[in-house]
Task: inverse folding
């Protein structure tokens, strides 16, 4: 599979024509490479009449690093199977897969070009009326239906086996839970933040809590996670939402996915304070972001509790008190993992445009510093915050 890269545009076009079934015979097709992610190659193939498909191809290395960082191509099978799993419960919230091709290490899928990348939309202060409800439903339905609360014991373990994803998990294990907490060569640190980074490397109480979260990431096979549910993996518009890119999918702690969404909303919240615009515009958008945090969590928790009550077969797990306790544990994990996402996007290898697009280094450092201190506080106090309203008050007061 290592030599599967398309040699030229004609090969990409022929592949799309043969495996999508959407182009009329004889249609004239064009192609453009549109990938702006870190890891893969993404092509858009289009015809004169406006029909188009996306081809995502996984090579045997990380795109932004090159052959020096090899990566298993099994990730594209995992992505195709995860998209199938997600489509079983939220068909409206994921792109349609037309074809998976193991030999080419490629997926042919629906073009969601009418939707905007959520990260860019948030930076531009777009208000997306359906976002909170859609992401909350996506998280509740995909996570509940792949957990032991729904699946029978044999099916659950069979699925855990299909989604063993060691290379991609190792990226997260290192980039989230190792690099930002030491002077690692992969880190990317604003020089104005150097003193704060050094203080964090000496912060033993914080490192203890991060170790606890990391160990749960390594060992807690609770549900099939998307595994990389940051704003760049979501496309949205006023009418709908699509979640893409589940190549990091594996069985892990539910709070990791939920916390990734929350952490990314809060990264934008902190960035807004220094992005262009009047104070009133920025403040109003920060209010919308916090409403979205609450709407997302409330949809997720409400739907998850409903599914537990209606569909959990095991009577020893289907108890009102257990539902409440279970969601309280997920909230604590969510707050903690959100904190690790915020810290790794500030000190680690992979930064986010919500902060990077703040041109003035002083102002960027102010936003980054706020992210670091809020992320730390969320990790440390994740077990005490207790409700989404309390988290929002905590963020506002920080
Ligand atoms: C080298 S990969 C860096 C990041 O990109 C992916 O989208 C994941 O978030 C990963 O941590
Ligand atoms: Mg990705």
Result:
């Amino acid at each position: 599979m290592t030599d599967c890269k398309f040699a030229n545009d004609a090969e990409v076009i022929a592949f799309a024509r043969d495996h999508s079934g959407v182009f009329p015979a004889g249609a004239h097709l064009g192609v453009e490479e549109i990938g702006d992610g870190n890891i893969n190659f993404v092509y858009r193939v289009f015809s004169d009449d406006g029909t188009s498909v996306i081809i995502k191809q996984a090579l045997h290395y990380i795109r932004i690093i090159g052959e020096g960082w090899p990566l298993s191509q099994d990730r594209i099978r995992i992505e195709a199977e995860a998209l199938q799993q997600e489509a079983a419960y939220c068909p409206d919230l994921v792109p349609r897969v037309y074809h998976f091709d193991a030999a080419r290490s490629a997926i042919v899928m629906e073009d969601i070009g009418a939707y905007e990348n959520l990260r860019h939309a948030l930076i531009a202060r777009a208000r997306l009326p359906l976002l909170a409800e859609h992401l909350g439903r996506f998280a509740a339905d995909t996570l509940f239906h792949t957990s032991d609360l729904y699946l029978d014991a044999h099916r659950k373990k069979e699925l855990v086996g299909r989604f063993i994803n060691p290379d991609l998990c190792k990226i997260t294990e290192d980039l989230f839970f190792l690099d930002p907490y030491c002077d690692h060569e992969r880190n990317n640190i604003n020089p104005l933040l150097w003193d704060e980074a050094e203080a964090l490397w000496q912060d033993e109480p914080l490192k203890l809590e991060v170790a606890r979260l990391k160990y749960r990431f390594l060992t807690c096979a609770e549900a099939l996670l998307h595994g990389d549910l940051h704003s760049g993996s979501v496309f949205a518009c006023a009418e709908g939402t699509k979640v893409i890119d589940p190549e990091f999918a594996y069985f892990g702690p539910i709070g990791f996915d939920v916390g990734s969404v929350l952490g990314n909303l809060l990264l934008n919240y902190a960035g807004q304070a220094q992005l262009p615009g009047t104070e009133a515009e920025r403040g109003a958008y920060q209010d919308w972001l916090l409403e979205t945090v609450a709407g997302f969590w409330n949809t997720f928790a409400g739907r998850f509790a409903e599914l537990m009550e209606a569909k959990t077969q095991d009577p020893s797990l289907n108890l009102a008190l257990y539902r409440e306790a279970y969601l309280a544990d997920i909230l604590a994990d969510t707050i903690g993992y959100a904190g690790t996402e915020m810290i790794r996007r500030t000190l680690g290898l992979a930064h986010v445009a919500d902060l990077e697009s703040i041109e003035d280094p002083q102002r960027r450092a102010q936003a980054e510093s706020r992210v670091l201190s809020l992320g730390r506080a969320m990790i440390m106090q994740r077990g005490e915050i207790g409700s989404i309203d309390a988290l929002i008050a905590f963020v506002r007061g920080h």
Remarks:
- The domain at 116-397 is CATH 3.90.1200.10 (Aminoglycoside 3'-phosphotransferase; Chain: A, domain 2).
- The first strand starts at residue 29 and ends at 33.
- Residues 38-39, 62, 171-172, 175, 228, 230, 350 surround 5-S-methyl-5-thio-alpha-D-ribofuranose (ligand 1) (CB under 6 Å).
